[in-house]
Task: inverse folding
């Protein structure tokens, strides 16, 4: 019986502590508008069947997840 009471008290005491969460998400790199426009022009010259296209799609998804991580 004392075991259950002790566990209950421990749970109550632990729930009273203040927790501080530190984000372990790295900051996404910020690119200038000029840099983004230059990249867009370069991407227009890549063939559609290039493997680079799939890599960039995956990279975009990862950047979106990283941005979402910082919004939480």
Result:
């Amino acid at each position: 019986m004392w075991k259950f009471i002790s566990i209950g008290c421990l749970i109550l005491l632990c729930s009273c502590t203040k927790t501080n969460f530190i984000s372990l998400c790295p900051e996404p790199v910020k690119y200038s508008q000029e840099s983004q426009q230059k990249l867009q022009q370069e991407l227009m010259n890549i063939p559609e069947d290039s493997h680079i296209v799939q890599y960039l799609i995956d990279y975009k998804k990862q950047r979106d997840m990283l941005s979402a991580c910082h919004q939480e």
The chain has a mean pLDDT of 80. The radius of gyration is 24 Å. Residues 26-72 form one domain.
